[in-house]
Amino acid sequence: MHILLIHQAYAALDEPGGTRHHELARYLVARxxxxxxxxxxxxxxxxxxxxxxxxxxxxxAILRAYTYPALHRSFVHRVFSFFSFMFSSFLIGLGVRDxxxxxxTSPPIFQGATAWAMxxxxxxxxxxxxxDLWPGFAVAVGVLRDKTLIRASEWLEGxxxxxxxxxxxxSPGFIDHVERRGAQRLALVPNGSDVAMFDPQxxxxxxxxxxxxxxxxxxxxxxxxxxxxxxxxxxxxxxxLDDQPEIAIVxxxxxKEKPALVEMAESMGLTNLHFLPPVPKSEMPLALSAADAxxxxxxxxxxxxxxxxNKVFDYMAAGRPVILAIDGVIREVVxxxxxxxxxxxxxxxxxxxxIRQLAGAPENARQMGLAxxxxxxxxxxxxxxxxKLAVILEEMGERG
Length: 400
Description:
Layout: E1 2-6, H1 20-30, E2 34-39, E3 60-64, H2 75-94, E4 101-106, H3 110-122, E5 126-130, H4 136-141, H5 147-163, E6 166-169, H6 175-180, E7 186-188, H7 205-210, E8 217-222, H8 231-240, E9 247-252, H9 258-268, E10 273-276, H10 284-289, E11 293-297, H11 310-317, E12 322-325, H12 329-337, E13 340-342, H13 348-359, H14 362-379, H15 382-399
Parallel strand pairs: 1-2, 1-4, 2-3, 4-5, 5-6, 6-7, 8-9, 8-11, 9-10, 11-12, 12-13
């Protein structure tokens, strides 16, 4: 089966950013399918231009569609970026031949409209994948305020749910929302991790040495530095920990808020907090192996209780205890597995105390990490989840 995936934020293993789709694509190719991916030439994580290289793999062809480059300048510029990709990806998609199925994914939701139109034009099934509840998240965090745009976005959201031949969500917390807005055929393919990529026994000494972090208890956050990630709380927690110089906090990644966070850290005089640039997914195992604990955090917003962040499963696959400042369904997973410590979102003191607790009990922290690894191995491996997706796609192909 030839699958056309339209995904502005698609990232391969040698690029920074989420690689869920590349990992799934590899599995689908191994199962006998082939994929054409239409992606942006601008990194969704960093906003930097894609560096030209030969990035096709056997069975996976990547086509780059023009995207307005000022992705991180402001919300308005971000919308321009979304719409430019929406139209340019449609034009490129017209030239992709012999497609059996079109796979659209959100966010950004606008590319879902492109995927729907492409599927209908080519008279093939349309799979719509929901990776967050846009525009709900954008409204909740305050970046989307215009009432006309909100109404238009909500209409598009419902339209795509109702007109998809199959809707797939990556969190059980999304199911009720999507069903109430009209989805008919709905399946859960949750986030997970490629456990073969991570080795809990690695000590990450090379990473520590490279960044001058030898001998520290290292609490690491890896991922986007955006408004939703609430990393100002991590900075405030770092200030509360300045009486324990053996503890270091690392923020690894990039995003729109990173310059402001760096400025804030400098104004606070933090010496125990370190900013590091993003690394490709292929280098993430080394980075996580250097950590003694890993931080996952989002703003204290009710709708964020629905999320299943991919980074949490990577932390667990790496055998590192999770310090989780997110309530809801992901907290149920972490606490159910005994894989870390959950703290209230938005509470620097609670976050600092969790870091102190793990730093003071390294063996307990190690056992939490290993419990997380067992949890991922038991139900959240990329191979298991990719097989579930493959069955869905193949059944769609049979239905026509």
